[in-house]
Structure formats: structure tokens, C-alpha cells
């Protein structure tokens, strides 16, 4: 009898739960950002995480970008050959890489590498009382743990994407000139001529947003974790999954904002 | 008496879900004295300390430090209070991303009371007080034995010369001689530095050594409070059973039922 009401009530509860979750997350992020502007400033923590994200992600990001560029050139060439449009290879490669693949692939890789590590580290600190200990040691955990990570992620990702873009285009160039018979200068000018500043800038802005989301998810789920090693494991998984989904969703939203006119 | 009360708890309550852990804890701790809190495993001793420090929000009740209700403090006042508080966590809670010396002087560095260069020397000094060589300062906490970690955590708790210090099982896991050394250190904190100490321990010899006063928590309430020397012959059957470690007694009776 009360079934329809129950369904509505259940739905209501789910929506309320979800919005409470999002609300708490927004407050968490705002709190961490506010800490960035509150002295004292500790560059030490920021540098540690910046190096961790930017420098130590370089090899895997570089490798991924290089191979993606190579495959992209190959695929575009074989596909476009059917329409006698092989000359478009250079422009397809450079636009796909700078607008989409550079930021998104870098984001997904860093989510797996860094987001997971952050959730695990902060989660372990939570379940072993280290976060409580910070507070008894005159240190605000949001300022010490979360704020520098968010800043480092937001600034490091664009840098990584510059590298990814460069290597991605280079991968395409190598395949095009070495195995597809393109002339080097023609390929390069073909890339350069179609590229607009907005293509690169939009990619870098996306990267900054992704970097923020990845570190935010890592910190948030780490911070919330409870219940020992198992809880930390769950937090890690959630952080990576949430960051990956958010990257894809925000990629769509940002693309819409930048390019639909 | 109330003029020199450091900590005053009234009707402190805390539940985790269905489980009632603190069910109206009333307790007074005199300034510049040492209080020892006793109680069975899982009776809520650590939770009591965390509620006093505001690390766990109590469900109900009053927590006063220096006559001010700390549950109503502003963010700034709470930070100021924690600035002059030290805490040894039961599991140490050392930061494993930092070397031992930086752990020990973490608070002094955070408060900019010391340069990084001076912190190494200060760390060596405090480590010596807990019976550790200066060379331990360069190790990572994960390279230490359990007892060494405990002593580093203790060094971290007292390095800033706090005004109120909480020790959650300071001597658990230490050999008897080192345990006595640590007890002496806690007594020094109170007698020489004028700190107020609040300790949790399961070791009766240690409780008598470090405590001026003692209290026992059972089923979420303080069932006895008095002088620490009285432990073992307080006249309260439950406390005496606990203090003498007897198998038969009122507490066991309750377990059986
Ligand atoms: N964060 C928490 N979530 C849920 N339950 C908790 C939490 N912290 C403590 N408890 C519960 O509260 C009770 C008291 O815990 P507490 O750590 O205070 O015990 P204790 O008296 O310090 O015991 P021990 O001597 O073994 O350290 C335990 O039953 C524990 O299960
Ligand atoms: Mg405990």
C-alpha cells in the first residue's frame, strides 16, 4: 500500500544523501583553498608534492603520449587513405593531442598514480591518529596536508600536459616521416598551420582542473577513511574511480564551454 | 579547590552508533598535579582524552580547561589551547614521512619557535631524556622498535614544554627499567616544569609512581576517584580488584552474567 510513498521517500533519501555528500565535499575544498591564503606559508610541503606529481609522473606520461601520437598517426592515415585525405594526418594528430588526448590521458594516468598514493597516505594517517596528532602539534591538517597537495596538482598537471603534447606530436611526426612517407617540413607546417592558441590553452586549463580534481579526490577519500588497512584500501579505490569519472565528465563540460559557439 | 582546577568534566557522554562508551563522566584534575585514569580495556579511556582535546566531539556534557568550556571555544582559542597541550597517542602516531628529529621538534617548528638547525640539537636533547641516542634522530620512525617509537612519541609530546600533557599508556611495551625512567620523566614534567599531567596506564606500580590522584572508569562512568597511593586498598571492591589484578571479584561477576 505504502509502496509508492516508500519509493519516493527512498529516492528523496538518496538525493538528500548525495547532496549532503557533495555539500560536504565543497566545504572541504573551500576550506582547503582558504588555508592557502592564510599564513604561515609552507613551501616545503608544496614542493614535495609538486616534485612527486610533476617529476615522477614524467616517464609514464611521456611514454603514453609518445605511443598515442604514433598510433594516432597510423590510424588516421589508414582511415583517411580511403577518402584520399592523407594530408589531414598532421592536423588531426596535433588537434586531437592538444585538445583532448594530452590532458585526458595525462589526467587518467596521474589519477591512478598520484590520486591513489594520496588517498593511501592520508588514509593511513587518519586511521593511525596522525591527523589528530597534527592538531595537537599546532598544525591545521587541512593546511598542512590538503592545501599544498591541491595547489601542487593544479600547477603540475598543465606542465605535464605541455610535455605530453610535445611528445604526442613528435610521436605522430616520427611515424609519419619514417614509415608513412611524409616529408618532415611539410608535416610540421601542416601541424603548425592548423594549431590555434585556444587549442593549447583550453588543454592546459583542462589539465589544471583535472589536477585539482585528482588531488581533491585523493585527499577527500583519504581524509574520510576509517577502519584500518581495509578502509584505506577502499578509500584508494574510491579516489581513483571518482577522479577518473570526474575527469571524463569535466572534459565534456569544458569542451562544451570552450568550443561550442 | 575549584580555583586551581585545570580540567573539569561534567556529564560527558559519547556513543558510537548504538554503543554507549561514555555515559556521564565527571572528573576533576587539579592544576600542577598528575592524574591517572584506570579502567578495563575498551572502557573509554582514550575516548575520554580525545573528547577533552576536542579531537572527538562529545555528544553531551561539559569539558572545562582553566574554567573555560572548550566545546564552545572559537577556532583561534582552541588552537591557542592546543598550542600549550601535549599528547602522547596510544599507538604513537608518529609521522612516518619525517625523520625522528623532525617528529620530535614538529611543534616547535610549526610554531616557529626554533630554526631547523637548532631543532636537531633540541631533538637530541629530548631524545636523551627518553633514553635514546642522538643518532636515532636521523632514522625514520618505521626503522624503530615498538618501544623506541613509544619513547619518540613521548619525546614529541613533551618537547614543547606544554602546560597540560596527556599520556595514553606511556610505558606500555617498555622494559621495566625504561618504564621507571619514563615514569620519572613524567613526574619531572609536573614537579619541575609545573605541568598538569593526565595519564592512562594499566601498570599499577607505574600508576602509583606517576599519579597524585587516580580515578577509575567503568561502564562509561567514573566509579572512584582518590589518591593514587590508596590504589589496592581503596575500599571500593571493583577498584581494589582491578588494582590488585584479582581474578575473582565484582568485575568478573559482571562479566559472567
Ligand atoms: N572511532 C571510533 N569508532 C567507533 N567506536 C570507537 C571509536 N573509538 C573508540 N571506539 C569504541 O569505544 C570504546 C572505548 O575505546 P577506547 O579506545 O577509549 O578504549 P580504552 O579504554 O582506551 O581501551 P584500551 O585500554 O584497550 O586502550 C571501544 O569499545 C571502542 O570500540
Ligand atoms: Mg586506549
From TrEMBL, chain A:
One Pfam family, short name: MlaE
Keyword Transmembrane helix set for record: yes
An MF annotation (GO) of this entry: phospholipid transporter activity
Gene Ontology CC: ATP-binding cassette (ABC) transporter complex
Keywords of this entry: Cell inner membrane, Cell membrane, Membrane, Transmembrane, Transmembrane helix, Transport
Location(s), subcellular: Cell inner membrane; Membrane
Taxonomy, superkingdom: Bacteria
Residues that span the membrane, as ranges: 12-33, 53-74, 169-188, 200-223, 235-254
Alphabetical list of PANTHER family matching this protein: ABC TRANSPORTER PERMEASE PROTEIN-RELATED, PROTEIN TRIGALACTOSYLDIACYLGLYCEROL 1, CHLOROPLASTIC
Record protein name field: Phospholipid/cholesterol/gamma-HCH transport system permease protein
TrEMBL record, chain B:
ATP-binding listed as a keyword: yes
Keyword line: ATP-binding, Nucleotide-binding, Transport
Transmembrane segments: none
Signal peptide: none
Residue stretches making up the ABC transporter domain: 7-244
One GO MF term attached to the UniProt entry: ATP hydrolysis activity
Superkingdom to which the source organism belongs: Bacteria
Protein name: Phospholipid/cholesterol/gamma-HCH transport system ATP-binding protein
Organism: Roseococcus suduntuyensis
